[in-house]
Amino acid sequence: MTLILTPSPRLRAAFRPLRVVALVYVVGIVTVMLLAPLLAPADPLAQDIANRMQAPGTNGHILGTDELGRDILSRLMYGAQVELFIALGATLFATVLGTVLGVLGAYFGGLTEVITMRVIVDVILAFPPIILALLAVTIYGPGASTLILAMGFLFAPTFARIAYGQTLTVKGLEYVEAAHVFGARNQVTLTKVVLPNIVSPLIVQFSLTIAASILLESGLSYLGLGVVPPAPSWGAMVAQGQRYMATEPTALLIPATVVVVTILAFGLLGDMLRDYFDPKSRK
């Protein structure tokens, strides 16, 4: 007898072909980030003025060289380390901060809700994100740590609102009431009962926020307010390539394409996670 395994409707709805391609790309870009020193064909900071602005495939440079003769492929690989490190760091910070604010505000209510959701979250939401990011970078100077903290604060309100709404829904259910009846402390109820039941939408938002973080960091680096040169950054590579768009368009198009595809891949990954964890969204 032959056993035929068929995927469940939930898996079929989540793992659509384009999303599977995006998942493979995300796994690949994370692998490149971790193994960049082993995979990069050249030193990303090594300059070779005699071979500047080489076309792709010239003199062993698969994607060509930039205006200082640096290998573009190597700079893209090391730039993946910078982009994903900042994006992951900012997203983790935003997830923790936003979840804590949202859960506490919804669970305790009263003054706690006013402080967390009205004073902190609403004040951050009142300002345009790019303005706050520019202000933080201008005051504290460009750098990875500044970007992580600034973007973490900017994206925290989104997680706070999700955690707040989910906690309001969960805290009146029977298993939370049962925890109160059995004398569980608030700390135990929040970490063991409430948080595990609101984590699914937070996971989805985590993936989407990584995409938004990459976009914001690339934009700041494009303006010269991101990662400090000569460290490779995709946004800075786009800005540098723009100067030679008329004569060597590949110097602009290659890093710009990588930025767009990476953001799209993380967005599709977020859609896949949403459909997998939330059956209602499939409709």
Overview of this protein structure:
By secondary structure, the protein is mainly alpha-helical. It is 70% helix and 0% strand. It is built from 11 helices and no strands. It is elongated, with a radius of gyration of 22 Å. The chain starts with 8 loop residues before the first helix and ends in a 6-residue tail after the last helix. The relative contact order is 0.14. The N terminus is likely disordered.
CA-atom Rg in angstroms: 22 Å
Strands, count: 0
Counted by DSSP, the helix tally is: 11
Low-confidence stretches: 1-5
Span from first to last CA?
36 Å
Secondary-structure class: mainly alpha
Shape: elongated
Strand portion: under 5%
How helical, in percent, are the residues? over 70%
Question: What oligomeric arrangement do these chains adopt?
Answer: single chain
Mean pLDDT: 84
Order of helix and strand elements from N to C terminus: HHHHHHHHHHH
* Main beta-sheet annotation: none
